[in-house]
Amino acid sequence: MSARRIFARPARFAAIAPYLWMVLFFLVPFGFVLKISLSQTAIAQPPYTPVFDFTEGRAALAAAFAQLSFDNFRLLISDNLYILSYLRSLVVAVTATLILLLIGYPIAYGMARLPQRWQGVAMMLVIVPFWTSFLIRIYAWINILQHDGLLNQVLLALHIVSAPVVWLSTDSAMYLGIVYSYLPFMILPLYATLSRMDASLLEAAGDLGASPLQAFWLVTFPLSLPGVGAGALLCFIPIVGEFVIPDLLAGSNSLMIGQTLWLEFFTNKDWPVASAAAVALLLLLVPPLVLYDRLQRRQLEANS
Amino acid sequence: MPLLRIEGVAKSFGNFRAVDKLSLDIRAGEFFALLGPSGCGKTTLLRMLAGFETPDEGRILLGGSDIAQVLPHERPVNMMFQNYALFPHLSVRDNIAFGLKRAGMARRDIAGRVAEMVALVKLEGMEKRKPDQLSGGQRQRVALARSLARRPQVLLLDEPLAALDKKLRESTQGELMELQRRLGMTFIIVTHDQEEAMTMAGRIGVMDAGRLVQVATPRNLYEAPASRWIAEFVGDINLFNGEVTSRENGRLTVATPDAGRLAVSELWPPVTRQVVAVAIRPEKVKLSRRAPATDGGASQAINRLEGVVTDVNYLGGVTSYRVKLETGAVVRASMANTARLDVDAYLAGQRVVAWFTADDCLVLEQ
């Protein structure tokens, strides 16, 4: 009896630990953000009202609670700036994810078909750039893309262009930066699905009269869809909220929601509106997150 | 002209010669088994017939035309894979229809053929299931139906029953034979299980180290193996090395260190070597408490070996005995348990005479 109790306590803790983590580091901070998003901006410290003060009794708390309103969310819907930012984020994320898929799939497919001993090498080549700081790699791109940067020098030397082309501060530069940064997140899940695929399935398809191209579309591709889904969501979700890459590489005429949020928070010092934008962004990302979770679970079940 | 003619086909992987200049004819409507230990090249040969490997040299003639370099999807042969290789994302119906759709069959005909195949392998009602919702035996049937659906000229079966348990394997063997007879199709099966090969195949090709060492009916393979290796690979056998000392009226006398002088009947072609092995299958060795009387007839010469029973293994249908001779050699004998109450069973430690006729012996030269 006592032996079981000793054993049960850590086991029970292990079972609730993830939930404890979620509550402490996700739900509680989210509660703060949600509360601020319902407050009004103020020139004060902290820069919003009301402030819940738990020392002043129940009546004061109730009064503070009554001050909360959805005004900031109304502002988000009524002001074009926010709606356009959300739309741009979605467009950028969808476009970038599609480009990533088009580039990442052939790479992952090629990796999965390499001889076993070369697969590890290929995997290293995909991962090694990540050993350098992300910011340094983006700054390197700025160097390459700038007016007298490497790219323009090469293009001029090869007489492909007669005058330097503007690369930096364009959408192309931003897409380049996003695709470059997120490519491993697309390749790795795809590679994981493709390398696990039973080679005899392709032989069976060939045996039954499918050409190699038909075998790919009828067998390989449908069976790799869980990997496609996982890779796409793994890229799409963070790209929607991406701030650094568009800020450094894209022009300033249209903003992604991450940039708008940053502006509200640090330039306008409007914490409540920034918080409302963050809450709205989270709500926007809940459906794809749920989808990702479901895909993951299905893959786990398929593997067991 | 046979349906399938394999001519001097060879295939190497690096330095390993998997198939070594092998030639074989297979007739239309035949149930042929390729039998051999693992690594003997039987699967490589089958994969060359399916088109998954291309031979380094030689020709594979199907109905007179060379298909050695034809891609798998353009060959009129189909294969049933050892792991079945069912498409996990497709239902039973779509798995079976896969090859028909690639062949450009009309939709209505596909539905008809699929229904026919489903009925053939008795999977009615399972059409909408996915492979992971089927039992092992059901998956095996889907794989069979899928490979038969295109009505191939030759069906290749790679260890088709290896994943089934013994009872299911035996009943499926019968069904496969019945199916092959009914469809009149040519089946080539690869197996390492000699009992399976003997049960199902009309002819068996035994492979060793990339070569065909004997092609024969099951009976001839067992009763007249071409070499010592085959004799030992197919079934159990007692072997006594010795030298031919005399020869008269088709009767050889072989002097063996282990079992003394043995009289054996000489078959065609005559034995040319001096150093030979005398082989006798355990079930042809009889045991008795006393030496049997010698029959005067020339063909009934009897070899008698006296010894002590050391092991008795009761296996249900038969009991196998090990008898140790005075020379230290061991003779294995097995006897059918024809009566439920066996008063004649021998016990370990008992002195017995193991005897067999000259006609039941084989003389193996290599």
Automatic annotation (TrEMBL), chain A:
<keyword id="KW-0812">Transmembrane</keyword>
<feature type="transmembrane region" description="Helical">
    <location>
        <begin position="121"/>
        <end position="142"/>
    </location>
</feature>
<dbReference type="Pfam" id="PF00528">
    <property type="entry name" value="BPD_transp_1"/>
</dbReference>
<keyword id="KW-1133">Transmembrane helix</keyword>
<feature type="transmembrane region" description="Helical">
    <location>
        <begin position="271"/>
        <end position="292"/>
    </location>
</feature>
<dbReference type="GO" id="GO:0055085">
    <property type="term" value="P:transmembrane transport"/>
</dbReference>
<dbReference type="GO" id="GO:0005886">
    <property type="term" value="C:plasma membrane"/>
</dbReference>
<feature type="transmembrane region" description="Helical">
    <location>
        <begin position="12"/>
        <end position="38"/>
    </location>
</feature>
<feature type="transmembrane region" description="Helical">
    <location>
        <begin position="149"/>
        <end position="167"/>
    </location>
</feature>
<comment type="similarity">
    <text>Belongs to the binding-protein-dependent transport system permease family. CysTW subfamily.</text>
</comment>
<protein>
    <submittedName>
        <fullName>ABC transporter permease subunit</fullName>
    </submittedName>
</protein>
<keyword id="KW-0472">Membrane</keyword>
<feature type="domain" description="ABC transmembrane type-1">
    <location>
        <begin position="86"/>
        <end position="292"/>
    </location>
</feature>
<feature type="transmembrane region" description="Helical">
    <location>
        <begin position="89"/>
        <end position="109"/>
    </location>
</feature>
<feature type="transmembrane region" description="Helical">
    <location>
        <begin position="215"/>
        <end position="240"/>
    </location>
</feature>
<keyword id="KW-1003">Cell membrane</keyword>
<dbReference type="InterPro" id="IPR000515">
    <property type="entry name" value="MetI-like"/>
</dbReference>
<feature type="transmembrane region" description="Helical">
    <location>
        <begin position="173"/>
        <end position="194"/>
    </location>
</feature>
<keyword id="KW-0813">Transport</keyword>
<dbReference type="InterPro" id="IPR035906">
    <property type="entry name" value="MetI-like_sf"/>
</dbReference>
